[in-house]
Structure formats: structure tokens, C-alpha cells
Amino acid sequence: MTRPPKRQGGGPRRGGRPHPAARRRPLDGARLTAYDVLDGVSSRDAYANLLLPQLLRERHLEPRDAAFATQLAYGALRARGTLDAILTGLVSRPLPELDPRVLDLLRLGAYQIVDLRVPSHAAVDTTVALTRAIVGTGASGLVNAVLRKVAAGGDRASWLATLGAEGDERLALATDHPRWIVEAWRDALGDEAELEPALLADDAAPEVHLVARRMERVALAEESGGEPGPWSPYAVRLGGGDPGRLASVRAGRAAVQDEGSQLAALLLTRAPLEGRDEAWLDVCAGPGGKAGLLAALRPDGVRLTAADRAPHRAELVRQALGGEADVEVLAADGREPPWGPGTFDRVLLDAPCTGLGALRRRPEVRWRRTPEDVPSLVELQTELLAAALASVRPGGVLAYVTCSPHTEETVAVVDTAAARDDVEVLPVAPLFPEVPGIARGDHGQLWPHRHGTDAMFMALLRRTR
Ligand SMILES: C[S@@+](CC[C@H](N)C(=O)[O-])C[C@H]1O[C@@H](n2cnc3c(N)ncnc32)[C@H](O)[C@@H]1O
Q1: Dihedral of CA 110/116/121/127: which sign?
Q2: pLDDT for 356-408, tens place per residue?
Q3: Each residue of 224-264: pLDDT tens digit?
Q4: Where are the domains of the chain?
Q5: Which atom of ligand 1 lies closest to the CA of 333?
Q6: Terminal CA-CA length for the chain
Q7: Which of 232, 290, 309 to mutate to test the pocket of ligand 1 (most atoms within 8 A of CB)?
Q8: How many CA atoms lie less than 13 Å away from 353 in the CB half-sphere?
Q9: Is residue 409 in contact with ligand 1, taking CB distance under 6 Å?
Q10: Architecture of domain 208-256
């Protein structure tokens, strides 16, 4: 399996407002911005998907430079495992002993050489200039020498051959995933032939998906220049551009939302219900993506309650639902809810999780998460699910959703709940006849290589009494 060819980056360009490091001579704005993102992630635990847009706004990069900065920053963060494996053999000291700024500069330069195939003189010269400005002349010699060796080793395919990795180690390096995530995806997929395509799809930059919440999707497609999404009747997929500029998005009639998340909200609305259908609950609603779609899709007269434990996330939900009638937003812990048992007819539990299915959007998260994160999340998910089931009236339904396919966080959590004698599992796939390949046993599982969405898991449970 080969990686899709990636666009080549250009040479030095003019940037926007100068960085402190650029006082003496102008530096390449795109590469400097990418470096600042890598540095923020390494030194301050910043989130790239928040830091990068902030820097792009502040620096007023031209669209082409902004696109290159994004490709560089996200790509180098995703590829960290492979880049470090290459650099380890070329630096005399262990990588953690290097000045962290030098390590990030080496990663940035090496990424351009092995993955973007930027001409090596451009990649080396611009990185050496950045090193001189950011760290000092002393470090630039090391960066120059190491990057020349990276260039001499060729592209990623040549380097993988040189590193001699086999089996899961090769898969991990070829697809930019830590090995434990490779294993978790294999376990969840259950199909070895699909594993590499799945991981490669998880390593590609995602399209932007929009949701038409309070407007016709055809009008949104026209306004945005996008195409209707294949699965959700409300989805529009965009090839590029800044969705924040769209009048419909600014007015709240549309929003950015992965098509998989749209299907998760749709699942709750499609679940068969007997009797009353008046009260819906979104237990873990922040920042309000699915609650926004639920509010738009509910029949007249349905009251929507949306909660989140974190007050600032509840505030984001309030903003997302601004102007909607019959909604209540609460800052509340779903394990000790302020509402009574059996209050709701339909409940969505979009549980906090490792996010292993949404790695495309958060490039550094794959290296931040560890297997040790899983047990405490499973405990929280199990408690939240038990409490959420208590909030459903007999005959009512609950959708349990995670943006992770990890079996412990998904099937195993649902199995524990389904062992109760007042709960039955409802099959998901029959509710989505238009979505092939969604069944994971009785549950639903979307995949980036099959559906072009995040790897979203969904299960449907009914309270029998
Ligand atoms: C996966 S996110 C929800 C995403 C949201 N449904 C959307 O579509 O925008 C999980 C949320 O659960 C919240 N959360 C974590 N623990 C919680 C708890 N004990 N009770 C309620 N919310 C909790 C987190 O603050 C986070 O906002």
C-alpha cells in the first residue's frame, strides 16, 4: 500500500506580522508558523487545532502560505513517530536529550524531505535559517548536517526500507500510528486486509463537512460550493476554503460537523419508540454539535435538555443552541443528574473517550494518548451509561456514542449495560439502510476508509421496564 502523493511545498514566502525571531531578517512565514505550532504542542501541551488557526489569524498569511503552514504543522505532528525513528539513527545523543526546539526543527525539515518531497536544498536551507533565528548559529550546524543525511536517505518508502521495520512496526511507521493504536484498530475492525487502508485514511487530512441545520442542504451546497454528503441528508462536503466565512455558518443555520457525528444524532431520532415522545436529553453535550442537530430535527413540542459537566462547555452549548425554543442547558455531572429517573424518552450519551476515531482532526493526540488512559475512561463511560439508562423511561431509547472504535470503550461498555435485565440492544444497521458496511455486530461503526467519516461508534439500547 502506497501513500497518496502529497502536494509539494514552495520556497520561502512573505509572511504576515513578524515573529520575534524574524527581527533581523525576514523568515519564511509558513515554515515559521508551522514551527511555532510544533513548539506550542511540545513545550506547552497546546492543541494544534486551536493554536494553528489563532496564529494564522494573527499573522495574516496569504491563503497559499496558510495552506502550506497547515500541511507542514499537521503533517509533521502526525508523522512524529516515523520522523523520530529516522532521526534517532542520525543524531549521536538520544532525542529527548536534544534542545526541544532543535528536535522540532529537525522534525519540520525531515518531514518536508521524506513526505512532501520538497527539494532538499530548499528544505535544508530554510530549516537552517529558522534554526539560526530561533536557537542560534551553534545549533544550525547540527541541523544542517542531520538534514543532509535525511535527504541522502530518500523519501519515506526508502527510509522504511532502511529502518528494516516489519509487521506491526512497519505498519505503525508507514501509517503514523503508535503500535497500541494499530492493535486497537485491528481489534475493532476484525479484518486484517482493511487495517492498512483504514490507518492510512486516518492519516490523511479530512475534508470539511458541514451540516444544514436550519436551511435546505441544496442551498448550503450552492453557497459553499460543496457537494452533498453521501450518508446524512443534511451533510455537505467541502473540498477546501474557510467555512467560517459562510453567511449560513455565521448565522447558525449551518455548522461544521463530521458526517459521522450527524449520523450519531440521526440514530437517536430514528430509533423506534412506543408511546410518548416529548422529552429528549443530551447528557454530554459540549460543545453542542449533536445537540444543535437534535434541536433542529426534533418534532414540534419536544423539549431538549442538554448538559455538560464543564461549565464552559455548557456555555458553548448555550451559544450553539442560541435562539432555539424549548431547550434547557445545564452544567451538570451526568453521573449525579439533577433530573429525576425515567424523565426522558430519548437520551444521547456521546461519552468522553480517547478520541482514537477522530485522530485526523487532532494530529498530535495519537502521540499524547497512552493505553493507560483507557481504564479510567471506561470506568467513567460505564458510570455515565448506567446513570443515563436510569434517566430513560421504560420503553424509551438511549444512543451510546463514542468517537473511538476501541473495543473496551465501545462494545465492552455496552455489554456491561446490556447485561441488566431491564435493557435490550436494538440493531443499528437496519436504521441506516443507505449506509453500507456500518454494522459492527448489533451496533454501528463508521470508518474513514469506508465512509470518509471519523471512526464513530454507536449503539442503541431500550429500557424494557
Ligand atoms: C465527546 S464530547 C461531547 C461532544 C458533543 N456531544 C458534540 O457533539 O459536540 C464529551 C463531553 O462530555 C463532557 N463530560 C465529561 N464527563 C462528564 C460527566 N461526568 N457528565 C457530563 N458531561 C461530561 C465533556 O466535558 C465533553 O464536553
Answers
A1: negative
A2: 999 998 999 999 999 999 999 999 999 999 999 999 999 999 999 999 999 99
A3: 999 999 999 999 999 877 898 999 999 999 999 999 999 99
A4: 20-164, 168-201, 208-256, 259-463
A5: 20
A6: 51
A7: 309
A8: 26
A9: no
A10: 2-Layer Sandwich (3.30)
The partner residues of 401 in beta bridges, in order of sequence, read 350, 458
User: How buried is residue 322: exposed, middle or buried, by Cβ count under 10 Å (0-12/13-18/19+)?
Assistant: exposed
- Asked if the 259-463 domain carries CATH number 3.40.50.150, the reply is yes
Is the distance from the beta carbon of residue 313 to the nearest atom of ligand 1 less than 6 Å? Answer: yes
Question: Can you give the pTM of this predicted structure?
Answer: 0.92
CA neighbor of 432 nearest in space, from 443, 419, 422:
443
Residue 6 in marked binding region: no
Ligand 1 atom nearest to 320, measured from its CA? 9
> Using an 8 Å Cβ cutoff, are 28 and 9 in contact?
no
**Angle 419-424-425 (CA atoms, 0-180°, nearest 5)?**
95
Q: Is the CB of 284 under 6 A from ligand 1?
A: yes
d(CA 131, CA 309) in angstroms, rounded, equals: 43
* Class of the domain covering 20-164: mainly alpha
Residue closest via CA to ligand 1's atom 19 equals 333
Sign of the CA dihedral with 285 first, then 289, 290, and 296 last:
positive
284 is in an annotated binding site: yes
> Quick one: the chain helix, strand, coil %, rounded to 5?
50, 15, 40
Asked if residue 377 has its Cβ within 6 Å of ligand 1, the reply is: no
Residues serving a catalytic function are 403
Domains 20-164 and 259-463 share a fold: no
Mutate to test the pocket of ligand 1, among 256, 284, 290, 383 (most ligand atoms within 8 A of CB): 284
| Ligand 1 atom at minimum distance from 401 CA | 1
333 is in an annotated binding site: yes
